[in-house]
Amino acid sequence: MRDRPLLVIAALIAVGTFLVIQANSLPIGSERSMDGLIKTASLSVDEYGIDQSQYEVLDAVVANNETFSDLLTPYNVDYQRIVQLASEGRNIFDVRQLRARRPYRVYTDSAGVARLMVYEKDLTSYVVFDLSENPKIQLENKEVTNVIRDVSGVIDNSLYATLLDQNIHPAVAGRMSEVFAWQIDFYRIQKGDAFRIIFEEQLVGGEMVGVGEILAARFVHMNADYYGFFFHEGDIQEHYDESGKSLRKAFLMAPVDFSRISSGFSSNRFHPVQKRYKAHLGTDYAADRGTPIRATGDGVVIAATYGQYNGNYVKIKHNETYTTQYLHMSKIASGMRPGTRVRQGQTIGYVGATGLATGNHVCYRFWKNGQQVDHRREKMASSGPIPVQYMNDFEILRDTYMVQLATPIVPTPKSRFPMIDAHAAVAAP
Ligand SMILES: [Zn+2]
User: Fold this and answer.
1) Do residues 202 and 209 make contact, with C-beta atoms less than 8 angstroms apart?
2) How many A from CA of 280 to the centre of ligand 1?
């Protein structure tokens, strides 16, 4: 068995390599000259809308530590003009943000003086530097087209690796973990789990640059089918399961009924015991001793123990994004131990004043992506089902996708792309 974290790292490295290769790939009809610059055959209007026939055109990539003026001084551009351009255009593009290995194109006149330069900021936008007497900088976006792809696969190691093997944009893995955040723990995916995903792929000039919406998906995890359908109508824009229930689940607003907030979340409050200002990274709900404390969302217990300051407490991991904690319990409910699965609303303990507490209350703490946040300021998804007036439309959409999703999923042979090919391309002269 190979180590899962290592595989994730390997996948991420492969993604990085892949992107670099895409950026460096030579256009058809071009060749690399001895000095490493790329000479492009003269077509009339290029992908930036510039008529190349008026210029000598040179393509290259930014080298390590190369500055904006380093790029232009070989082309006889007046240094004062470079400085002026960089300073006046700073709000549009700061030339100090040039990145190594990004491609650029220089357009020179017959005297070898650069008139224009285009820098590929990222896969979807580029910067045009006009080097004339009135120099200016313009930021332009490339045209992005969406194509719908229907992909499937059986997982061998990880979702990332399986997607990469099939030349599917790895961002799909992140999107899938968002869509099914409450249904599937993507860190527990097993060999043999399978997927069929219908999604929008974003292309620029035929190259994958990103992922739009996951339109419909079926994920087979431990032999159970999970479905997600993207539905957009009116102000609704959400993923639903096959029965029209939202896949996103909202948290309960409070872990106890019939309580009052005795102290809110604050990054700076006056501590009554310590007599100084101190952050309070939780919300205190005062309630009678013994009042049941409920899990505010489905999840898995990761701690149920006693601490000197926290008293008796329970900590629950809900998904990759959210974790909650409940402090000062008089008693932890029976059965709560690391690994216990809890449902939203399930009693996990009882209000008390154990640990550092002056009265009966539960201190409720809420983490989002590892940061403690005020849960009352979080925009929690509404977890309602499809509104009645849209149900018919939803069913039509679902049934159409269902036919596609029902196609058997078979393991696809590995394309060997991009890991092997990418390295070959880097090594080529
Ligand atoms: Zn507190």
Assistant:
1) yes
2) 6
What residue type is assigned to position 9 of the chain?
I
283 with 231, same domain? no
Between the CA of 255 and the centroid of ligand 1 the distance, in Å, is 13
**Ligand 1 being an ion, which residues bring their Cβ within 5 A of it?**
282, 284, 363
Strand residues in 241-297 grouped as ranges (E): 260-263, 266-271, 276-280, 283-286, 292-294
Cα 254 to averaged position of ligand 1 atoms, centre (Å): 13
What spacing in Å lies between the alpha carbon of 327 and ligand 1's midpoint? 8
Residue 400 lies in a domain: no
- CATH of residue 195: 3.10.450.350
- Domain range for 370 is 260-377
The mean pLDDT value for 15-25 works out to 33
285 and 360 fall within a common domain? yes
Confirm whether pTM is higher than 0.85.
no
| Distance in Å, CA 265 to ligand 1 centroid | 8
Q: Mark whether 172 and 112 lie in a shared domain.
A: no
Provide the number of structural domains found in the chain: 3
How far is ligand 1, taken at its centre, from the CA of residue 283, in Å? 5
> pLDDT (tens digit, 9 = 90+) per residue, 270-320?
666 666 777 888 999 998 999 999 999 989 999 999 999 999 999 999 988
